[in-house]
Specification:
The structure is a single chain. With about 80 residues, the chain is mainly β. It has one domain: Beta Barrel (OB fold (Dihydrolipoamide Acetyltransferase, E2P)). Helices cover about 0% and strands about 60% of the residues. The protein contains no helices and 5 strands. The radius of gyration is 14 Å and the shape is globular. The protein starts with 5 loop residues before the first strand and ends in a 5-residue tail after the last strand.
Length: about 80
């Protein structure tokens, strides 16, 4: 069983070979005023089979460094994007 960090996000870009960009949104509560704000982080993710498309919801897991900016691996595609 892996105890590495797993995150869920939406694929923003898949224009690279075997790489995707995933936007992970989280809510942070202000310590003094209590207002919640949305923060978005973008992660470079290794996609070995080029299976994720923009708009897909995916699960990613932390891994060893693949390149200078890639430190995450694609686990699975949770939900496919709606076809327009």
């Amino acid at each position: 069983m892996s105890h590495k960090a797993e995150k869920f996000g939406v694929v923003v870009s898949n224009k690279m070979q075997k790489s995707i960009v995933v936007a992970v949104e989280r809510q942070v509560r202000d310590g003094l005023y209590g207002k919640t704000t949305r923060l978005t982080s973008k992660f470079m993710v290794h996609d070995e089979k080029n299976e994720a498309k923009p708009g897909d919801t995916v699960a990613i897991v932390e891994t060893r460094p693949q390149s200078r900016r890639k430190r995450w691996n694609l686990v699975r595609v949770v939900r496919k994007a709606a076809v327009v």
